[in-house]
Amino acid sequence: MLGDQLSPDIRALKTADRNRDVFLMAEVHREASYVPHHKRKSPSSFFAMRYFAQNLERLGWQ
Prior knowledge:
The chain is mainly alpha-helical. Helix content is 45%, strand content 0%.
């Protein structure tokens, strides 16, 4: 998942099986640095990804 796909309405969640499928989210330096960003944008995006991952875990996703 990418940082701009943090929604429970994405197709990947709707078509996945909680008992079989695993979601992987990675904080990839190259994705965060290929263009200049405000110094708070990357940390904010990473925080949002971590928060979303915690919510997925609460819903039973791995």
